[in-house]
Amino acid sequence: MLTTVGVQTNSTRAKTLELHIAQRVAAELEKLKKHESSVLEEARKKILESSDDKSGSESGSEKGSLLSIPSISPSDLLDSKEDKRKKNVTSTKVQEEIEKLRQTLDSRKILNEVPREVEAA
Question: Based on the number of CB atoms within 10 Å of its own CB, is 47 exposed (0-12), middle (13-18) or buried (19 or more)?
């Protein structure tokens, strides 16, 4: 015999398990984020050290340094203003074509239903 207490327990267990899994995933993601940040920081330090070594023999220009490269945000990866303008122009052309087709359809003769008296004759 199944009671409502058993159903609530199963539901509660399922929710608890989902919460536990979500917490573990979040913890693992945080670990990965910290690890990747530390690896990136170490790489930047190595690059800085190598550029410092080269600056002693060269004029100290950091134009070739990776440290001078700005970081890229996700919005930078999205469409640029030029791409948006091209899409907008294309969209405008499509809208114009649709309007021309509507006008062509509207200008066609409209067939009306023939009265029954005419069909009977």
Answer: middle
SS3 per residue for 80-112:
CHHHHHHHHHHHHHHHHHHHHHHHHHHHCCCCC
Residue ranges per domain, the chain? 4-56+80-112
The pTM of this model reads 0.36
Give the integer Cα–Cα distance in Å for 105 and 99. Answer: 10
Backbone angles phi, psi at 116, to 5 degrees: -65, -30
pLDDT digits (tens, 9 = 90+) for 59-95: 444 455 555 666 666 666 666 667 777 777 777 888 8
Please, what is the Cα angle at 12 between 9 and 16, to 5 degrees?
135
Tokens 């074509």 sit on residue? 97
Name the one residue in this structure whose structure tokens are 């114009």. Answer: 96
Contact 68, 62 (CB under 8 A): yes
